[in-house]
Design goal:
Helix content: 40-55%
CATH architecture: Alpha-Beta Barrel
Low-confidence stretches: none
Order of helices and strands: HEHEHEHEHEHEHEHEH
Mean pLDDT: 96
Shape: globular
Bound molecules: pyridoxal-5'-phosphate
Structural class: alpha/beta
Number of domains: 1
Number of helices: 9
Distance between the termini: 22 Å
CATH superfamily: Alanine racemase
Strand content: 15-25%
Number of strands: 8
């Protein structure tokens, strides 16, 4: 049963919180359902799991339209400017804002869809990996300041996709760096910006991310099993 896998993740999160002296209610588990059928999402939804993550606009849109009960959809994958219009009214949170240009487009589409405020996270690439999207740490402060002037975009925090590593301990410094960066940003008191959410940690390393301050873990394989991209 999927709920058993989910509850195992929940238990691991609780234990990581205990080790770090944190309140487990601060941490939201996002069930990353990309490539998985709607039936699996509905199975978890029946057990009151509300937060699901998708990395593709088209897939999020289709599942949004087909699901029987409302859930909170998280867009966790790269977002192209020309696709903002399809999800601006569907995603509960966009995790992957990585440029002023994209934020401006979100602001524009929010107006068109009569949305007062679109909650977003700013994606940061701490390990400076060329293969990953996200702002370089050197650009983050300035970009956040610029985005903060957009009236219909609300920055709720930061997101990172840590490198794929054999030993998840290797990612601890990146998680700690993100926590520190969020503290530095908070101190600037930008309008329209709060740092209540840190989206970090995946199946391989979410416990360490929680120990370092994550408030949203994005777990796919650990809940749904391996993905098969060929189907
Ligand atoms: C696929 C994906 C995840 C989940 O990965 P798992 O290793 O299966 O837990 C998390 N975040 C993002 C951005 C993803 O694309």
């Amino acid at each position: 049963m999927l709920i058993d896998q989910y509850n195992q993740v929940k238990k691991n999160v609780q234990e990581a919180c205990k080790r770090a002296g944190r309140d487990p209610r601060e941490v939201t588990i996002i069930a990353v359902s990309k490539t998985k059928p709607l039936s699996m999402i509905e199975e978890l939804r029946k057990e009151k799991v509300m937060d699901f993550g998708e990395n593709k606009v088209q897939e999020l849109k289709e599942k949004y339209e087909q699901i029987s009960w409302p859930v909170r959809w998280h867009l966790i994958g790269h977002l192209q400017t020309n696709k903002v219009k399809y999800i601006v009214d569907k995603a509960a949170l966009i995790h992957s804002v990585d440029s002023l240009k994209l934020a401006k487009q979100i602001d524009k589409e929010a107006v068109k869809h009569n949305i007062t405020e679109v909650p977003v996270l700013v994606q940061v690439n701490f390990a400076h990996e060329d293969t990953k999207f996200g702002l370089d740490t050197s650009e983050v402060m300035e970009t956040i300041q610029e985005i903060s002037t957009l009236p219909h975009v609300k920055i709720k925090g930061l997101m990172q996709i840590a490198p794929f590593v054999e030993n998840p301990e290797e990612n601890r410094p990146y998680f700690a760096a993100m926590k520190q960066l969020s503290v530095d940003i908070k101190e600037k008191n930008f309008d329209n910006v709060d740092m209540s959410i840190l989206s970090m940690g995946m199946t391989n390393d979410y416990e360490i991310a929680v120990e370092e301050g994550s408030t949203m873990v994005r777990v796919g394989t650990g809940i749904f099993g391996e993905r098969n991209y060929n189907i």
